[in-house]
Amino acid sequence: MHNAWQAEPLYQGPQGFEAWHHDLGEKCGTFHAEPPAGPGLASFTGAMKNLIGPHPALDGSRIISNCQHLHRAHSDIRADDKDFFYLVLQVGGSASMCQADNRARLGKGDLVLLDITQPCDFYFDSLSDQMSLIIPRQALRQRLGQRQLLFNRPLAANSALGSMAGLMTQRLFDAASLQPEETAALFDALLMLLRPGVSAAHDGEHSSGQAQKLVKAKVLIERHLRDSELSPERLAEAIGTSVRNLHRLFAQQHTTMGRYILEQRLQHCAEAIRQAAPQEKITAIAYAWGFNDVSHFSKAFKARFGISPRDYRYQHSDEYR
């Protein structure tokens, strides 16, 4: 079967980073990219593969890199004047994505809809592999009618809607074996399938002041998760509310702010442990994600995952098998 990809060479090191960053801007819009933590540009690796399909309206890219952060600001939006939606499928690795005060954590197979005309942030723990399918604004709006778009709300890979949408997205990225009419029909079916997952009736459910404050709090927590001094007082001041109301917002989600932060840090630590080199110390990973007490980290990790961080590494690392 004819390969549906036009594969670019692998990008590596400082020069590779500059070339990859340039090609990302040409294809996907202007983003500010932060290289990997630690060795930085010297350890950069990435790839970009452009979708080639039989239908002229089908476009997208597969984007691979170990960058730690991508940011698209208002100035970038004005500069390149791109106008479309992105349907992002997390093929490998994981990512945290923020747009319109909504935060999404994507694991393998999860999808999310993004608006390229709005600022957004991508945070990566390690090598990330994403398929980004361009969806023309008019095409999606025609199928949604007057429904409200819900950006950056993940479609889980283990849900019926998410699993089907993921399979269809991957099929579109390998559409060279299809006829143009078949590709157009598959693309149209994907848009109709997405309708209940990326839109809602105008009922005001997601526009209340309290709901917006909770979303802002979660976004700020994600951005400052590595800061061991993150506190309710600082967070409440940043989102313009009282500490008491901040605790009330999390209580309505049947959790506490402290428990929520702990869960996010543990998830990031687990991901980092799975991806870390054998010589990297687990204590360093814990400190990097905001823990300042190794004993507390070990107990919390075992309570969350059922085994110690050391045993977790052993189970998930090929180096120890």
UniProtKB/TrEMBL annotation:
PROSITE patterns in the cross-refs: HTH_ARAC_FAMILY_2
SMART domains membership: HTH_ARAC (SM00342)
Highest taxon listed in the record's lineage: Bacteria
Gene3D superfamilies noted in UniProt: Homeodomain-like (1.10.10.60)
Every HTH araC/xylS-type domain range: 215-315
Pfam families, sorted: AraC_binding_2, HTH_18
InterPro entries registered for this protein in UniProt: AraC-bd_2 (IPR035418), AraC_XylS_family_regulators (IPR050204), Homeodomain-like_sf (IPR009057), HTH_AraC (IPR018060), Tscrpt_reg_AraC-type_HTH (IPR020449)
Keyword annotations: DNA-binding, Transcription, Transcription regulation
Role of this protein: Regulatory protein of the TOL plasmid xyl operons. XylS activates the xylXYZLTEGFJQKIH operon required for the degradation of toluene, m-xylene and p-xylene.
Name of the protein in question: Transcriptional regulator FeaR
Gene: feaR
